[in-house]
Amino acid sequence: MRKISLSAGYTCYGCRSVGPKGLWGYHAVRSCSAPALPAGRITARQAADLWERHFAERGVTEPDHSSHYILAYLLGAKTIESLEQGKLTEFLSPEKTEQMWKLCSKRLSRMPVQYVIEEWDFRDLTLKMKPPVFIPRPETEELVELVLTDLQMKPGTEVGTQETCLEVGCGSGAISLSLLKSWPQLKAIAVDQSQDAVDLTGENALRLGLQDRLQIHHLDVMKDAETVLSLCSSVSVLVSNPPYLFSEDMTALEPEVYRFEDHAALDGGNDGLEVIKHILTLAPQILSDHGRVYLEVDPRHPPLIQQWVEVNVEEMHYVETRHDISGRPRFCILRKEKSNKDHKLDLD
Amino acid sequence: MAFRRAIHLLPRGKDCVYSLCIPCLHTSPNAISQTVRFPQHHCGRTTRTLHTGTPLMVAKILSVDELFSKKSLQEYLKKTEAEYNECLRAANSGVPEEQSSEDTLMSKRTKVSLLAPLIQSIRELDAKQREMAETEALLKDEDPALRELAELESEGCLQEIQDIRQEILNLLIPEEEADLSDLVLEVTAGVGGQEAMLFTNEVFHMYQGYAYHHGWSFDILEYMTNDLGGVRSALASISGSQSYKRMKFEGGVHRVQRVPKTEKHGRMHTSTMTVAILPQPTEISFTINSKDLKIETKRASGAGGQHVNTTDSAVRIVHLPTGVVAECQQERSQIKNKEKAMKALRAKLYSIKLEEETSKRYNQRKIQIGTKGRSEKIRTYHFPQDRITDHRIGLTVHDMKNFLLGEDLLEEMNSSLQEFSNQETLEELLGENNQQGS
User: Fold this and answer.
1) In this entry, which stretches build a coiled coil (chain B) (predicted)?
2) Number of folded domains in chain B?
3) Is residue B38 part of a domain?
4) Least enclosed by CB within 10 Å: which of A12, A135, B367, B430?
């Protein structure tokens, strides 16, 4: 019974094109590049091993993790390590086998695992992922941690005080939604220049039931500065993981990033500071007094930002640089200081 | 010394229930138990089940009555009451004459308030026992109606006496520092190769079942498998009411005897695995200097950030001064893996610290609180005979399948261990340790 349906599935599969269509039609996988569906039953472990080898042969990065995450996803777990013991030695159903082949073939085209399984975790949230919306990186989890720690330390943030946060370039919504989830008194405004990102943030907010405290706007801070200012004033936290790659580095990116993710979320111009400078210029008008800016940046950026702000944005005070888990200078914290101006006048 | 410790911990004594009042725990047909239940106003509580009749039991778990018939206990209670009265008199006598006696007065006042619940129970017990004596006289009365009434009354009285005695015992047993904490469970395969690893996995899941049975959370921190479905080692964080207290007797070497699935000649193998129960310290009670930590991730090399999209979110943390390592790859989120690895690391480091502090204190006991380094064989799982024997108290139960579910049978085993341990504590308290030869 099983064998028949499997071979039927195989025949059917042979004449189907599995590659992602449309946008990446150019990179679509031809089904012949994937290993043939097994004729008999195979266990979950065998399927994972087979694809791991195949990925490795084809030069796909993280061959082991790719095949493991896809398999775990199909079996209803997040990681192969958290999979119920024994599942690996069980036979895969013909349907699951076919799905495994379909998803792994996508990965073979270098599509990131997060897009292949259409979801990923960010802190304690599981978010839907959709190309070409930027996939949140682990460093950004630490950015959220910085904001949350400061919110906790801040005096007078007991129940009742309403804090508002603005996120520039929300992508999948990871930062805003994490903050809203962990800080029940917080309201957030999220903006992005990409309609795909705005839609995905909205979808994720709805899934997590956080839509009531989140406003999402489709706008570009580079062009619609006035709209941004009209939407937000007296914001206490401005957080952003802006595009910060140097344009010249773009071509050196792995295919997973270069081919599949929105370049507008990555490319920060010649010095990687284009969007950052823009955000910092607007910051004094957006923030309340002592309001803070939290930025994720390239490790080369912090000293450049500090210098630039001191010269160009009077009301912003550079507070500190924080390092990521691997010890790279990764985050910049700045504060709005109204008294800054008066202070300077006094000095003159 | 032991006495002072008891006093110190008395206010928490109420939480220290010996055998938890959970009904239906003792419904298993495998233990012969004598459950006495009285319908009066105590119907909300289940009486303690006493395993006195179980023939396979070697260690002596004494009943409440047996404990109370001990002269030493009676003397101890009398002594405590006398001390209480003395302190109370001193505390009430008013103004201290010199500076030094002010401290004494303070300590006496503290003692009074600490001892109050115990003294109250002792007095209640006295009153009830007098009442009982009066009722007993009526039992011999000639009027049958009066006799019947007296019988009813004495039944109620007996039950109350039993309850108060239990209460007194609870107040006497000191609570351990770690009793209120959550814990990290560590299982490690011992001798026996693949078979030991398979058994390690079964035991790990038995505790998972035990946690669910109690409504505790069971969060896997580390799970090192081999290709054949065995587990080299695994760590899980368990939290919930009384979790450490109920799990702490599980630490030690567990031995399995059976014919492994992989055995071709039908020979029986003996393999072992080790369980360690590590109390999970709170952030406040145990701090680790972040400068002592080396955190390793796959993103450590290269540019990181937006430059790369890696999915390997495993985190490994090394505590440099001790070389203790914890790692986690259970989660897709790197920060979650880091949190879990930190949790495991904290528990590992804390248990090393506790081990140093407490090893002296517990050396004399049959029931060791299981943390690292306990090499004592505590239990045998004998599959052909379908029995599980705990060597510390000589208790045997049957029905392996049921036991490995981690539900009623394991709970029953645990209650006996708890009772026996409490008894040992009590004996220590009463200074009987040396006379305990047999």
Assistant:
1) 328-355
2) 3
3) yes
4) A12
B-chain residue closest to A125, CA distance: B333
Q: Does A87 touch chain B (CB under 8 A)?
A: no
Does pTM top 0.95 for this prediction? no
3-state secondary structure of B381: strand
- Rounded to a whole number of angstroms, the distance from the CA of B267 to the nearest CA of chain A is 25
CA A119 remoteness from chain centre: 11
Is A326's CB within 8 Å of B336's CB?
A: no
Best A79, A122, A257, A332 member to test B by mutation, with max B CBs in 10 Å, is: A79
Query: Which among A65, A124, A326 is the nearest to B300, CB-wise?
Result: A326
B84 shares its domain with B156: yes
pLDDT band at B359 (very low <50, low <70, confident <90, very high): low
Does one domain contain both A129 and A54? no
What radius of gyration do chain B's Cα atoms show?
26
Structural domain count, chain A: 2
Q: Does A70 lie in the same domain as A219?
A: no
Give B366's pLDDT tier (boundaries 50, 70, 90). Answer: low
The yes-or-no verdict on residue A27 having pLDDT over 50 is no
CB A80 within 8 A of CB A72: yes
Q: Which of A87, A137, A182 to mutate to test the interface with B (most CBs of B within 10 A)?
A: A137
Give the residue from A116, A132, A158 where a domain finishes: A116
Which residues have C-beta within 8 Å of that of residue B4, sequence separation ≥ 6?
A: none
Residues A101 and A146 in one domain: no
Residue B438 lies in a domain: no
Q: Do B305 and A330 touch (CB under 8 A)?
A: yes
Looking at the structure, do residues A275 and A153 belong to the same domain, yes or no? yes
Subunit contact B332:A79, Cβ cutoff 8 A? yes
Show the domain range for B297.
Answer: 290-355
Structure token digits, residue A95:
């349907």
Regarding whether A270 and A141 lie in a shared domain, the answer is: yes
Are residue B248 and residue B187 in the same domain, yes or no? yes
Q: Could you tell me if residue B437 is inside a domain?
A: no
* pLDDT exceeds 70 at position A190: yes
Is the separation of the CB atoms in A304 and A273 below 8 Å? yes
Q: Which helix (H) or strand (E) holds A289?
A: strand A287-296
Q: How far is B321 from chain A (nearest CA, A)?
A: 20
Q: How far apart are CA B420 and CA B366, in angstroms?
A: 9
